[in-house]
Amino acid sequence: MQDPLAFIIAVAHIAAAISLLNGLLTTLGQGKIVATAIESMARQPEAAGSIRGTMFIGLAMGETSGIYGLLIAIIMLFANPLVSLYIQYAM
């Protein structure tokens, strides 16, 4: 291995890419939530209020998951704790 710091940065970039895949999966999950809720409201219009409320709670929880993935990616790219730990022990 030539440069351990370059390896740490490369692995951090791969980890950031994997955590950003969470955003794609979150989008697919939210689409399924909305599609199922619309189908349920079409079948049972009198329960539309409670279905809509439950749908928004599910969307909020799913969006939180996507935001966590973005946060992890930003930390791994710009404030990587492994780089500072390597520099501390290497010096």
Strand content: under 5%
Instruction: Give the name of the CATH architecture.
Output: Up-down Bundle
Overall mean pLDDT stands at 90
**What is the CATH third-level topology name?**
F1FO ATP Synthase
CA radius of gyration: 20 Å
> What structural class do you assign from the helix and strand content?
mainly alpha
Instruction: Compute the number of helices.
Output: 3
Major sheet summary line: none
What is the β-strand count? Answer: 0
Query: What is the CATH H-level superfamily?
Result: F1F0 ATP synthase subunit C
Assign a percent range to the helix content: over 70%
Number of domains: 1
Please provide the ordered H/E string of secondary-structure elements: HHH
Provide the fold topology:
Layout: H1 4-43, H2 48-78, H3 81-90
Explain what you see.
There is one protein chain. The chain is mainly alpha-helical and 91 residues long. It has a single domain (4-90), classed as F1F0 ATP synthase subunit C (F1FO ATP Synthase). Helix content is 89%, strand content 0%. It contains three helices and no strands. Helix 1 runs antiparallel to helix 2 (48-78). The longest helix is centred in the N-terminal third of the chain and has 40 residues, at 4-43. The chain is rod-shaped, with a radius of gyration of 20 Å.
